[in-house]
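User: Quick sanity check before I run a bigger batch. Here is a single chain. Can you write out its predicted 3D structure?
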Amino acid sequence: MPSVTYAELEVVTKAIASISAGTPTTDLHLITPAEKMSKNGLTAAVHQFLLLALGKEPEVAAFVQHFAVVDSEFPERLKTGLVKEYDRLRSSGHRGDRLFEELVWFSAGGRLTDLRQMAAGLGVLGYFFVTCEVFEK
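Assistant: Done. Predicted structure follows.
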């Protein structure tokens, strides 16, 4: 995670944000990450990945805010791309850790062979997990 830079974040966020826009979410209610993990059937193994992702949360937040200055719709497109993939995976029967793993793969642009890009995707997914934008609340 320490070697993930804006370059990797740009690659993965562009891929996620390129998903066509949908209906924005309006539920602003936050729950703790532990509650959210329990509600979504995520295990201690995923918890370890989320801890890694949280190490990049300030950088991902700064990255998203930076691009929002140039493109005010960027954060919403990014969130919408993740939510649409989450909804697609859920409708295909994915749940719990498997759903999380598939979303990491998606967030990394489908390139789990590039370790820094995978870490960047994990960081972006972790950011949206913690801000309660993706996964059930």
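Helices lie at 6-17, 33-39, 44-54, 57-70, 74-91, 96-107, 115-130.

User: Great, the batch can go ahead then.
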